[in-house]
Amino acid sequence: MTSKKFSIVIAGGGSTFTPGIVMMLLEEAERFPLRKLILYDNDEKRQDILGEALKILLKERAPELEFIFTTDPKVAFTDVDFVFAHIRVGKYAMREQDEKIPLKYGVVGQETCGPGGIAYGMRSIKDMLELVDYMEEYSPEAWMLNYSNPAAIVAEATRVLRPDSKILNICDMPVGTLRRMSQIVNTTPDQLEVSYFGLNHFGWWTSVKDKNTGYEYLDDIKEYVAEHGYLTQVEVDTQHMDESWQETHKKAKDLLAIEPRFLPNTYLKYYFYPQDEVEHANPAYTRANEVMDGREKNVFSAAQKIIDSGTAKENSFEIDSHASFIVDLARAIAFNTGERMLLIVENNGAIANFDDDAMVEVPCIVGSDGPEPLAQGKIPQFERALMLQQVTVEKMVVEAYIEKSYQKMWQALTLSKIVPNARVAKELLDDLIEANKEFWPDLK
Ligand SMILES: NC(=O)c1ccc[n+]([C@@H]2O[C@H](COP(=O)([O-])OP(=O)(O)OC[C@H]3O[C@@H](n4cnc5c(N)ncnc54)[C@H](O)[C@@H]3O)[C@@H](O)[C@H]2O)c1
Ligand SMILES: O=P(O)(O)OC[C@H]1O[C@H](O[C@H]2[C@H](O)[C@@H](O)[C@@H](O)O[C@@H]2CO)[C@H](O)[C@@H](O)[C@@H]1O
Ligand SMILES: [Mn+2]
User: Fold this and answer.
1) Which of 342, 356, 359 is nearest to 153 (CA)?
2) Would you call 186 helix, strand, or coil by DSSP?
3) For a Cys-Cys bond, which of 105, 226, 236, 349 suits 179, CB 3.0-4.6 Å?
4) Which ligand ends up closest to the CA of 294?
5) Per-domain boundaries in the chain
6) Annotation marks residue 41 as catalytic
7) Location of site Increases basicity of active site Tyr (predicted)?
8) pLDDT band for position 321 (50/70/90)?
């Protein structure tokens, strides 16, 4: 048990994931003791519901923990060791637009991929920079562990616009898939050591080894995935019980078919089989609606029950697998543990034949000075060409933000593997500009 106790602000305190993360922090109190926990959000009404419920729960389970929830950045970011950032600019109402507008043009509508991700990225940059600036103004020694999506564009924007900031960009898709892989080979995720390369939501596993014996499980897992995808006997993700996510895990088999050398990140399905996504999509009811009717409703009604009953003894929130590794990451920084984790970092040669200034997702050794990427060698031309196209889209969105450039945003949409041609890209862009006029810079 360490003596040091930490102070964390969760930026995006009204997030549907906040209660699960708080429950996980309570669970991990031995390994990562807290002295202060702050929720910060720019939507007071939304955050207050979770804040009031968590105040009751924490009084009962961690009375010694200082807990506040606020919309005042100075209060939120002062005297903190870590900023856990998971904001969703525009909330689910805008995710719904990101997913539905492209479908009007027969194009995949998705939270972080294609036109939906591009729109979400353009919406997120200003708010993310604001969080970084608050952190550096009020707690200059703090680290930001950023979950906020679209992680690829957010990571690129902070690389360009806040190059010296202490930000770790993370994604739990590979963490969730590793849980599935560990089940497939009848071990536990902590026993597996991976090699992986790609961009966020756009990558491949090249090795999945047993940490102790060095046994390479890649072929064993591929044999299973070729038949079942990543669908496992026991569901490992409370978040992914919905049919749409089950379909996604099953689709991994078709992704393996196009690239049999490596194991795929499930997000590749939007780039390789967009027609299947559009065919099966319901333009009137997308993933955003599922979450609004599911997770969002469940989390806020659980909170209301706690408030109404005045106790969390009967009702409570569920611990969320969603952010279990966020503590490992914070501990790696705090205690220089040298944890090996996938992070989204500047390439700088980790992928030998890819741009140094690309934000890539690779295994890193994490210590007090941050991540050290592990060399993944040269990648094949097939993946290299796909990644260059996608990373250029991500870079052009950030350039379009900086230059307020309509032309660059049109080019970014046109370049996306998911958008069929420049005419659809322009129609999409004009529609997205209208839907995002409250959030995007005025593009000229
Ligand atoms: N990196 C990953 O693998 C991963 C996994 C899960 C979720 N996420 C991301 O985490 C984020 C939260 O997800 P959610 O579904 O809980 O969203 P949510 O809409 O439930 O919560 C987001 C919260 O952020 C707040 N917010 C928006 N802009 C803000 C700003 N400028 N300052 C402070 N607060 C602000 C909103 O008011 C809202 O309360 C999203 O970006 C989501 O994509 C990422
Ligand atoms: O459709 P949603 O909002 O439920 O999920 C979208 C997010 O999906 C991934 O995160 C998952 C993760 O893969 C899973 O293992 C579990 O931890 O839940 C997470 C949240 O659902 C993806 O990595 C995120 O970027 C997406 O936002
Ligand atoms: Mn992710």
Assistant:
1) 359
2) coil
3) 236
4) 2
5) 6-170+288-373, 175-280
6) no
7) 111
8) low
Is the Cβ–Cβ distance between 204 and 198 less than 8 Å? yes
Question: What are the strands of the beta sheet with 192-199, ordered from one edge?
Answer: 192-199, 202-210, 263-264
The dotted CATH code for 6-170+288-373 is 3.40.50.720
Per-residue DSSP letter, 318: P
Question: Which run of H or E residues covers position 339?
Answer: strand 339-346
* 439: number of Cβ within 10 Å: 17
Convert the pLDDT of each residue in 355-409 to its tens digit.
Answer: 999 999 999 999 999 999 999 999 999 999 999 999 999 999 999 999 999 999 9
SS3 content of the chain, % helix, strand, coil (to 5): 50, 15, 35
Cα–Cα distance for residue pair 278/124, rounded to 1 Å? 25
- Tell me the one-letter amino acid at 39: L
How many Cα atoms occupy the beta-carbon half-sphere of 96 within 13 Å? 10
- Residue 265 marked in a binding site: no
Residue type for position 210: D
Backbone Cα Rg of the chain:
21
- Token code pair at residue 97: 């637009």
Domain 175-280 listed as CATH 3.90.110.10: yes
* Structure-token pair, residue 83: 């900023």
| Ligand that lies nearest to the alpha carbon of residue 155, given by its number in the listed order | 1
Helices 422-435 and 91-103, packing angle to 10 deg: 150
Round to the nearest angstrom and report the end-to-end CA distance of the chain.
Answer: 56
Give the list of residues 6+ apart from residue 329 with CB closer than 8 angstroms, or none.
Answer: 145, 168, 170, 339, 341, 366
Rounded Cα distance, 357 and 338, in Å: 24
Active site residue: 98, 172, 237, 320, which one? 172
Q: Band the pLDDT of 323: cuts 50, 70, 90.
A: low
| 3-class SS of residue 170 | coil
Which residue, judged by its Cα, is nearest atom 9 of ligand 2? 173
3-state secondary structure of 304: helix
Three-state secondary-structure class, residue 55: helix
Residue whose entry in the numeric block shows the structure tokens 């909170």: 303
ipTM entry: 0.99
For the CA of 295, the nearest atom of ligand 2: 4
Identify the active-site residue in 40, 196, 267, 271: 267
- Cα gap 140→81, rounded to integer Å: 9
Q: What is the mean pLDDT of the chain?
A: 96
Helix, strand or coil, per DSSP, at residue 268: helix
Neighbouring residues of 56: CB distance < 8 A, sequence distance ≥ 6? 306, 307, 310, 311, 312
Q: Which residues, at least 6 apart from 332, have a Cβ–Cβ distance to it below 8 Å?
A: 338, 339, 341, 366, 367
Predicted confidence (pLDDT) at residue 1 exceeds the cutoff of 60: no
